[in-house]
UniProtKB/TrEMBL annotation:
<keyword id="KW-0436">Ligase</keyword>
<comment type="function">
    <text>Allows the formation of correctly charged Asn-tRNA(Asn) or Gln-tRNA(Gln) through the transamidation of misacylated Asp-tRNA(Asn) or Glu-tRNA(Gln) in organisms which lack either or both of asparaginyl-tRNA or glutaminyl-tRNA synthetases. The reaction takes place in the presence of glutamine and ATP through an activated phospho-Asp-tRNA(Asn) or phospho-Glu-tRNA(Gln).</text>
</comment>
<dbReference type="InterPro" id="IPR004413">
    <property type="entry name" value="GatB"/>
</dbReference>
<protein>
    <recommendedName>
        <fullName>Aspartyl/glutamyl-tRNA(Asn/Gln) amidotransferase subunit B</fullName>
        <ecNumber>6.3.5.-</ecNumber>
    </recommendedName>
</protein>
<dbReference type="Pfam" id="PF02934">
    <property type="entry name" value="GatB_N"/>
</dbReference>
<dbReference type="GO" id="GO:0005524">
    <property type="term" value="F:ATP binding"/>
</dbReference>
<dbReference type="InterPro" id="IPR023168">
    <property type="entry name" value="GatB_Yqey_C_2"/>
</dbReference>
<dbReference type="Pfam" id="PF02637">
    <property type="entry name" value="GatB_Yqey"/>
</dbReference>
<dbReference type="InterPro" id="IPR017959">
    <property type="entry name" value="Asn/Gln-tRNA_amidoTrfase_suB/E"/>
</dbReference>
<dbReference type="InterPro" id="IPR018027">
    <property type="entry name" value="Asn/Gln_amidotransferase"/>
</dbReference>
<dbReference type="GO" id="GO:0050567">
    <property type="term" value="F:glutaminyl-tRNA synthase (glutamine-hydrolyzing) activity"/>
</dbReference>
<dbReference type="InterPro" id="IPR017958">
    <property type="entry name" value="Gln-tRNA_amidoTrfase_suB_CS"/>
</dbReference>
<dbReference type="InterPro" id="IPR042114">
    <property type="entry name" value="GatB_C_1"/>
</dbReference>
<dbReference type="GO" id="GO:0006412">
    <property type="term" value="P:translation"/>
</dbReference>
<comment type="similarity">
    <text>Belongs to the GatB/GatE family. GatB subfamily.</text>
</comment>
<keyword id="KW-0648">Protein biosynthesis</keyword>
<keyword id="KW-0547">Nucleotide-binding</keyword>
Length: 477
């Protein structure tokens, strides 16, 4: 029996406001436990929350960027449940009147574009954090995160594979970073998601029994957790067993899911409108004011890179996958206007040295865009070869020095003196008569041997183009 995978994602993004959603406490990460708190976010009796206007504006920006409809009025509600890190005994969220609904984003997987619907975006406050003692059976509560503003982005169940789920998350992550409303740090919990997944026989309209996955702190872990759950559910269904609706935690060390709690019945959060907060009214003028502040978004920037710079669709996708990488590319492009060559260096040498996904955030890269442009200019001018440039670039990554200084200190200037190179060419040909005869008989691949011998003799400093020409001339005379 063939099965179809059905996935829906609930993404929580912490907003980059200076203060919390309903009080003036700082949102700074990493402060000592329970120091970013006040009577409001601690839920003391008699206090009144006051809505942070910037939270509303950031939520509006994300709604516009994801093609959502912003309602003329939205309302906060109390979501009632009891948990140690929720001091009020309820969370201020939104229920029947969220700020935005009915949006979409396009994702690309294996060369195919799919549109993933967004059910809703709503604003809410974050809960605190429990810290479990590994040595003793006790836990500690840190309420610094309580009241930090969140937007929750709920997808339609339109995602059909773990690969699509990862692509959707990366797209939302990129949009949030482009808008500069969320830092997207998954390790710190600024961007996190819960995944609902079920399987159904191919062609069936009714959804299967779903499970919910939590505790996934990277794009790779989300994809691996979903892949595991697809296999687990498929094996159970083929064995004639039922899927139990439950919440599962992903164990990244063992690459398995573990049951957290059963969800056989829907939880009743007893939502009701928060009596301390008035409805938020949003008119068309405010929406257009926010629309005017939006930067060029990933899809538009990608299209421009393809149409104006002649980049391939795949290269443009990589270079626009993060705002920081695209900004770096364009800053270097202003000094070195060869988009294809520059893009290749970013996607190969820079990403290799910065280790994959970390290269997407190159704000801490020791090589400035101007210095990378200068390095490529030295290759074009014949000052250094492409091979030497890679060595120079590695040193630039370690030291942060400009390419001219590295080349001068290491004595890496390319040899381009024709007479000097010609003398070595003739010596190499004389020392290798068998290979010289092979070349004259039409075996042109042997040219690689000759150029390699010259590069070995000169420590890679000889101009390869000039060397190739001189070898051909000397061997055909």
């Amino acid at each position: 029996m063939e099965f179809e995978t059905v996935i829906g994602l609930e993404v929580h993004a912490q907003l980059k406001t200076k203060s919390k959603i309903f009080c003036g406490c700082t949102t700074a990460f990493g402060n000592p436990p329970n120091t970013n708190t006040c009577p409001v976010c601690l839920g003391m009796p008699g206090v009144l929350p006051v809505l942070n206007k910037t939270v509303v504006e950031y939520a509006m920006k994300m709604a516009i960027a994801t093609n959502c409809a912003i309602g003329p009025m939205n309302q906060f509600a109390r979501k009632n449940y009891f948990y140690p890190d929720l001091p009020k005994g309820y969370q201020i969220s939104q229920f029947d009147l969220p700020i935005a609904e009915h949006g979409w984003v396009d994702i690309e997987v294996e060369g195919k574009t799919r549109r993933i619907g967004i059910t809703r975006i709503h604003m809410e406050e974050d809960a605190g954090k429990l810290i479990h003692d590994e040595r003793e059976p006790k836990s500690y509560v840190d309420l610094n995160r309580t009241g930090v503003p969140l937007i929750e982005i709920v997808s339609e169940p339109d995602i059909r594979s773990p690969e699509e789920a990862a692509a959707y998350l990366k797209k939302l992550h990129a949009i949030l970073r482009y808008l500069d409303i969320c830092d997207g740090n998954m390790q710190e919990g600024s961007f996190r998601c819960d995944a609902n997944i079920s399987l159904r026989p191919l062609g069936q309209k009714e959804f299967g029994t779903r499970t919910e996955l939590k505790n996934m702190n990277s794009f790779k872990n989300v994809q691996k957790a979903l892949e595991f759950e697809v296999r687990r559910q498929r094996d159970r269904l083929l064995d004639g067993e039922k899927i139990v609706q439950q919440t599962l935690l992903w164990d990244a060390d063992r690459n398995v899911t573990n049951a957290m709690r059963s969800k056989e019945e829907a939880h009743d959060y007893r939502y009701f409108p928060d009596p301390d907060l008035v409805p938020v009214v949003i008119d068309a003028a405010w929406i257009e004011e926010m629309r005017a502040t939006l930067p060029e978004l990933p899809d538009d920037r990608k299209k421009r890179f393809v149409e104006q710079l002649g980049l391939s669709d795949n290269d443009a996708s990589v270079l626009t996958s993060s705002r920081e990488l695209a900004d770096y590319f364009e800053a270097a492009l202003a000094q070195y206007p060869n988009g294809k060559k520059l893009g290749n260096w970013l996607m190969t040498e820079l990403m290799r040295l910065m280790k994959g996904e970390e290269a997407l955030d190159i704000s801490q890269c020791p090589v400035s865009p101007e210095n990378l442009a200068a390095l490529l200019g030295m290759i074009d001018a014949g000052t250094i070869s492409g091979k030497i440039a890679k060595t120079v670039f590695e040193e630039m990554m370690l030291s942060g020095k400009d390419p001219e200084s590295v080349v001068k200190e290491k004595g890496l200037v390319q040899m381009s003196d024709q007479g000097e190179i010609l003398a070595m060419v003739q010596e190499i040909i004389a020392a290798n008569p068998e290979q010289a005869q092979q070349f004259r008989e039409g075996k042109t691949k042997v040219m690689g041997f000759f150029v390699g011998q010259l590069m070995k003799q000169t420590g890679g400093k000889a101009n390869p183009g000039l060397a190739n020409d001189l070898f051909v001339k000397a061997l055909t005379e």
